[in-house]
Every structure is written in C-alpha cells, then in structure tokens.
C-alpha cells in the first residue's frame, strides 16, 4: 500500500504542463487529488476522466488563485469532500515577460497577484486545516529566476524570489505542528510554453545547461512526489533546485 493512499492533495494550476504531471503522479501513487484551473473546462474534465479511468479520485475546481474567496472556497470544499488536506502544491503561475521600461503596471500586478498573492490565498486556509490535523506538507513551485534573476523578468523573478522567502518563513511558523514547507526552483522544463520558443533561442539556452537538455514534466513530478513523501519528512524550509545545473 502506498503512503499516499487515503490522503488528499491540492494542486493549483493542474490542467497543463508541470501541474498536470504532478496531479497524475500523485493520483498514480494513490492520493485523492483536487486541482484548480482558470480556463479550459475541457482539459480539466479530460484529466479527471483519465484519473477516474485508472480507478483514482480527482476533483477539478475552476478557481483563480488570485481571488482570495475562490481559493478559500476551494480548500473548504476539498476538506468537506475528501475529509483532509494532506498535501498542497502551489503551482499556478503566469508570465508577462518584458524589459522593465516596457512593463505596464498591469503586467506587474497580474504576475504578483497570481504567483505570490495567489500562494497566500490558497495556503492560508490550507494551513488552517493542516494545523488542526497536526500534519501536512506544502510544496511551492518556484524558479531559478527567483534565485539568480532573469533579465526581462523583473515581475516573475520578484514573485518567485518572494515565494522562496514565503517558504522559509512559513516553514518556521508551522514546523512544531508537524507541517513541512519547501520550494522547488525549476530551470527550463519542456512545456507548451518552452516548446513555442524559437529553435535558435532554445539551442542557446541548452548550451548554458550543464546537463545539455531541458527537464521533463515527468521528472519534475517525481521530484515533487519525493518532497511530499514521508521519506522527506525531515526536510523543511529548503529550496531544491531542479535545473540541470543551470544556476550552479
């Protein structure tokens, strides 16, 4: 029997790319998985059907994490439906990359609202549940952009750096309640977004990665599952880089 069986995970931004892979990996290991999405109901329904077809359990919530009420309602409904909130993966995020001289106030606010405030909006009610349970595991999906900074990403880098500070502070707050909090700082991962990059730019970036390739969403999902697992219960407040050595 897998340690994930009988436990419940919430994954934000779960219909595409990294989030989808994490949802599927946790479901494969036996967890009941609830995930949020903002746009494609069709993709969400397909993912639920795929998991249920494999005898898993999944729920999809159309909820913008930047909306505090929607985030709180999602956590409340997950607790009511599954009975617990054992894992939280804060994955939802957006980019609006521009040089700061070209960046609008809306570009800044949108990224900070989703990538940073959105994490607060979901984590606060989830922690409330975990504290009462006296157990929980939180994983925040950050980026090497928050570790070393990336030109043209002042908004994104600020949000992901802020998420690292959030992770470390929260880990200290909740450790005595048997709740762990870690961040996964990702490098270049093969997703729809990176797949749309010009080949010349892709090759230029690959040349900067010591391992000489992009990571896969399946690799990220397995790393995430380890950090969430009981094998990692003595790890908290850490930033684990999965970037092929790009930000060494």
Descriptive labels:
alpha/beta; Rossmann fold; 9 helices; 48% helix; globular
Outline the fold blueprint:
Blueprint: E1 8-11, H1 17-28, E2 32-37, H2 41-53, E3 58-62, H3 68-82, E4 87-90, H4 105-133, E5 136-143, H5 145-148, H6 154-174, E6 179-186, H7 192-195, H8 199-206, H9 217-228, E7 239-242
Parallel strand pairs: 1-2, 1-4, 2-3, 4-5, 5-6, 6-7
What is the compact description of this entry?
The chain is an alpha/beta fold and 248 residues long. The chain has helices spanning 17-28, 41-53, 68-82, 105-133, 145-148, 154-174, 192-195, 199-206, 217-228; strands at 8-11, 32-37, 58-62, 87-90, 136-143, 179-186, 239-242.
Give an overview of the whole structure.
With 248 residues, this protein is an alpha/beta fold. It has one domain (8-241): 3-Layer(aba) Sandwich (Rossmann fold). The protein is 48% helix and 16% strand. The chain contains 9 helices and 7 strands; from the N terminus they run βαβαβαβαβααβαααβ. It has helices spanning 17-28, 41-53, 68-82, 105-133, 145-148, 154-174, 192-195, 199-206, 217-228; strands at residues 8-11, 32-37, 58-62, 87-90, 136-143, 179-186, 239-242. The protein has a 7-stranded parallel sheet with strand order 3-2-1-4-5-6-7, with helices on both faces. Helix 4 (105-133) runs parallel beside helix 6. The longest helix has 29 residues, at 105-133. It is globular. It starts with 7 loop residues before the first strand and ends in a 6-residue tail after the last strand.
């Amino acid at each position: 029997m897998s340690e994930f069986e009988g436990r419940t995970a919430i994954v934000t931004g779960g219909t595409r790319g990294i989030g989808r892979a994490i949802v599927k990996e946790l479901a494969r290991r036996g967890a009941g998985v609830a995930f949020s999405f903002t746009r494609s109901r069709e993709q969400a329904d397909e993912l639920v059907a795929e998991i249920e077809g494999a005898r898993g359990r999944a729920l999809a919530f159309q909820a913008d994490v930047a909306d505090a009420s929607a985030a709180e309602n999602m956590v409340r409904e997950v607790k009511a439906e599954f009975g617990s909130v054992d894992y939280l993966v804060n994955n939802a995020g957006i980019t609006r990359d521009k040089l700061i001289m070209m960046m609008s106030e809306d570009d800044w606010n949108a990224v900070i609202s989703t990538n940073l405030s959105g994490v607060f909006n979901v984590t606060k009610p989830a922690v409330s549940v975990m504290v009462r349970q006296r157990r929980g595991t939180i994983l925040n999906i950050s980026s090497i952009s928050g570790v070393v900074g990336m030109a043209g990403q002042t908004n994104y880098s600020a949000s992901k750096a802020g998420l690292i500070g959030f992770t470390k502070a929260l880990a200290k707050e909740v450790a005595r309640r048997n709740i762990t909090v870690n961040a996964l700082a990702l490098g270049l991962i093969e997703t729809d977004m990176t797949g749309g990059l010009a080949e010349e730019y892709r090759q230029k970036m690959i040349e900067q990665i010591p391992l000489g390739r992009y990571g896969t969403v399946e690799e990220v999902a397995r790393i995430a599952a380890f950090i969430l697992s009981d094998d990692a219960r003595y790890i908290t407040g850490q930033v684990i880089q999965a970037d092929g050595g790009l930000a060494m």
